[in-house]
Amino acid sequence: MVRTFGRSVSSAAVALLVVVAACNDLRNPESPKLEAWTAPPETGELRGVGFIGSGTDIQTFGFDVQSMQARITGLFLGAEPSTSATLITGQTEPGTSFTAFRASSSFCSTPSNGAEFEAVGHLMEPGVDTYVAYTVKGCDNGPAGFGVDTWSVDIPSRGYHKDGAVTGDIMKQ
């Protein structure tokens, strides 16, 4: 087999282009870093049903979010009855999605008892119909009915944060 100069130059040019594209620091090309690659989400499941708060300041929720094989699926329904607000994420709600899942949570006193997910949900309340990014954190600290599970929700664009002990149950797998 006879090698041609053109193929060798082409191969070298492609190899150089790959190295340059993979490096984010051209001053240190010996340590390439892939810019576009992100790790797949951790696997696990976080489920819950119940409410936090008391009196007229309660937040109700029901959810089941699973992360497996680089896919995050599920359903989240949340409501705050005092403001008539609802937040929904699921495949039957166009424009919503689950964007991240973490199989532990520093929100929990024992991080391995909890999990977190991030999502984009459809927020509806009187005079508001919009899509918002939010984070849910849940801690499965014991059996249902003992009031030891904890839950939180954050909607940064609305300056909204609520957390507390769950009347109901959080289940992490």
What would you say this structure looks like, in words?
- By secondary structure, the protein is mostly beta strands.
- The protein has 1 helix and 10 strands.
- Strands 1, 2, 3, 4, 5, 6, 7, 8, 9 and 10 form a 10-stranded antiparallel β-sheet that branches.
- The protein is globular and about 40 Å long.
Short description:
The chain has one helix at residues 5-22, and strands at residues 44-54, 57-68, 71-80, 85-90, 97-102, 114-125, 128-139, 150-155, 160-165, 167-172. With 173 residues, it is mainly β. The model is unreliable at 1-29 (pLDDT under 50).
Oligomer category: single chain
Poorly predicted regions are 1-29
Strand content: over 45%
DSSP strand count = 10
Provide the succession of SSEs: HEEEEEEEEEE
Give the helix tally: 1
List keywords for this structure.
about 170 residues; mainly beta; ten-stranded antiparallel beta sheet; 1 helix; 10 strands; globular; disordered N terminus
Question: Helices and strands in order, then pairings?
Answer:
Elements: H1 5-22, E1 44-54, E2 57-68, E3 71-80, E4 85-90, E5 97-102, E6 114-125, E7 128-139, E8 150-155, E9 160-165, E10 167-172
Antiparallel strand pairs: 1-2, 1-10, 2-3, 3-4, 4-6, 5-6, 6-7, 7-8, 8-9
